[in-house]
Amino acid sequence: MWYAFPGLPTESRSIRFRPWLLPQGCARVWPDPNEAEPGEGLVAVGADLDADRLISAYAHGIFPWYNEDTPILWWSPEPRAIVERQGLHVSRSLRRRLRRRDFSLRSDTDFEGVIDGCADRSEGTWLLPEMRSAYLHLHALGLAHSIEVWEAGQLTGGLYGVQVGGLFAAESMFHRATDASKVALVSAVCSLFGAGFQLFDVQFMTAHLASLGATEIPRNQYLARVIEVQSVRVRWDNVASTLEDPGFLSAV
């Protein structure tokens, strides 16, 4: 069923695909994301943010993104932005910073702090209270993780995302000190791929991500890769132990 609200096209003749309307508590089923419109790729509207539904969404290449003026919106962009280990770009200045190692790296020691750091934006945030609670619950279940940058005992940057097998779906990142978000992303990519992850999703391309080597691939290719890597088993402990190694970034 089509759900009309401000910002969505209203001329049905130009629409090939109509996003599904999902009642709260409905079965965890999704339309084929390949059928969604190019661009941001709205797939569905409604439902809820319970843990099983969120994991089901990520396993189908779909994620929630909305604001307080809309219902829950579910997206699968075309094209999709990812970071490949071999495509990671580290500038000379950032490489010097990584080798200087005047920071420490941790994982999952302050997931809530990372969430709140990502939500602290002057332009407002899509990390509404119910979204925050949903990802905190995923973290409690061991399904969402954070990569954290600490300097002088303070959390200065980081990112968080959701794990589904060998997929890490990065959701957001932040910084309170120069280069801290870049350090977080490079550290995440290197440690996750080193631990056995095979796909690092960043959803939409931005200038910041492009500067670090993110690339775009067709949605159908992304969805095929998600299916391939879901059965991969990766222990998050391997990521955490890698981050604690002072020399693991020396070869970047």
Helix and strand succession? EEHEEEHEHHEEEHEHEHH
What overall form do the CA principal axes indicate?
A: globular
CATH class of the largest domain, please? Alpha Beta
Q: How is the largest sheet built, in terms of strand order?
A: 6-7-8-9-10-5-11
Describe the main β-sheet briefly.
Answer: 7 strands, mixed
Classify the secondary structure makeup into a structural class: alpha+beta
CATH superfamily of the largest domain: Leucyl/phenylalanyl-tRNA-protein transferase, C-terminal domain
Give the oligomeric state of the chains in this entry, treating copies of one chain as homo and distinct chains as hetero.
Answer: single chain
* Proportion of residues in helical segments: 25-40%
The CATH architecture of the largest domain is: 3-Layer(aba) Sandwich
First-residue to last-residue Cα separation = 49 Å
Number of strands: 11
The overall pLDDT, averaged over residues, is 93
Q: Any idea what the radius of gyration is?
A: 18 Å
Which band does the percent of strand residues land in? 15-25%
Supply the number of structural domains. 2
- What is CATH's topology name of the largest domain? Aminopeptidase
